[in-house]
Write a structure and sequence with these properties.
The chain is an all-alpha fold. It is elongated and about 55 Å long. It contains three helices and no strands. The longest helix has 27 residues, at 2-28. The chain crosses the membrane at residues 12-29, 41-61. This is Transmembrane protein. Keywords: Membrane, Transmembrane, Transmembrane helix.
Length: 66
């Protein structure tokens, strides 16, 4: 499961980066539509959850071992 979470986190970071780049490109042509402006948010929230999970893994392992 940890490998899948890490892989998901990597792919989400790529999607987030591309969404932010697309946002800046769209802003250079004027006021972008709302869906372009808010497109980085879903991957960002998923990155938050997967990142917090990976951050908590070492602490959970210590807690389980005693």
């Amino acid at each position: 499961m940890n490998v899948r979470i890490r892989q998901l986190h990597r792919w989400l970071s790529i999607i987030f980066t591309l969404a932010v780049i697309a946002n800046f490109v769209a802003m250079s042509f004027g006021q972008p539509p709302a869906w372009v402006v808010y497109s980085p948010l879903p991957p960002l929230f998923l990155l938050l959850f997967t990142g917090l999970y990976m951050f908590a893994l070492p602490y959970a392992a210590k807690w389980r071992s005693g």
